[in-house]
Amino acid sequence: MSKVSAPLGVAVLTVSDTRTRETDKSGDYLADALQEAGHRLVDRKIAKDDIYEQRAIVSSWIADPAVQAVLVTGGTGFTGRDSTPEALGVLFDKQVDGFGELFRQLSYEEIGTATIQSRALAGFANHTVIFCLPGSTGACRTGWTRIIASQLDADFRPCNFVAHLTGEKA
Predict the structure, then answer these.
(1) Which distant-in-sequence residues (6+ apart) come within 8 Å of 33 by Cβ?
(2) What is the chain's pLDDT, residue by residue, as a tens digit (170 residues)?
(3) How far is 78 from 69, CA to CA, in rounded Å?
(4) Which of 4, 105, 129, 154 is deepest in the core (most CB within 10 A)?
(5) Cα Rg, the chain, nearest whole Å
(6) Closest to 75 (Cα-Cα) out of 125, 147, 17
(7) What's the whole-model pTM score?
(8) Dmax of the chain from CA atoms?
(9) Backbone dihedral region of 57: left (phi > 0), alpha (psi from -120 to 50 degrees) or beta?
């Protein structure tokens, strides 16, 4: 893959009650993939499946002018502790409805009807795009390679998110 012409600052959040930096394969994948594309990894954290911890971390990133995109992995399912959509959806100024729809369509090709158990979502908050993916490395790979990478590439046509991310943050 060629390097992007307009590198963005990207932060990665893994939502998990059990993962550590040593066992966070999905976070590793996203951090490596975005850097291989030519973007800058600004920050990376692991948060418990706690609504307020997730909100606090992502809120600090959307207020940071160095961060234009946030990639979140985990917490999008239906178990009792899965809370990423509830935690982060309220931060969105605008939801990117097509992201979850397209992610589930592409995921269906890989895992069949189990894809309906994914509550993947995305949205914009303060000139920052936030993508929330399931916690599996395969889901992160699907989301990155088949949707996110091109939308964070200023040269992707007919359109991409980069122009929406270069505005002044409040």
Answers:
(1) 141, 144, 145, 149
(2) 569 999 999 999 999 999 999 999 999 999 999 999 999 999 999 999 999 999 999 999 999 999 999 999 998 988 888 899 999 999 999 999 999 999 999 999 999 999 999 999 999 999 999 999 999 999 999 999 999 999 999 999 999 999 999 877 76
(3) 25
(4) 129
(5) 15
(6) 17
(7) 0.96
(8) 42
(9) alpha
Tokens representing 89 are 């959806």
Residue with tokens 């997730």: 54
Three-state SS across the chain? CCCCCCCCEEEEEEECCCCCCCCCHHHHHHHHHHHHCCCEEEEEEEECCCHHHHHHHHHHHHCCCCCCEEEEECCCCCCCCCCHHHHHHHHCCEECHHHHHHHHHHHHHHHHHHHHHCCCEEEEECCEEEEEECCCHHHHHHHHHHHHHHHCCCCCCCCCCHHHHCCCCC
Structure tokens at 120: 């993947």
- Amino acid present at 95: Q
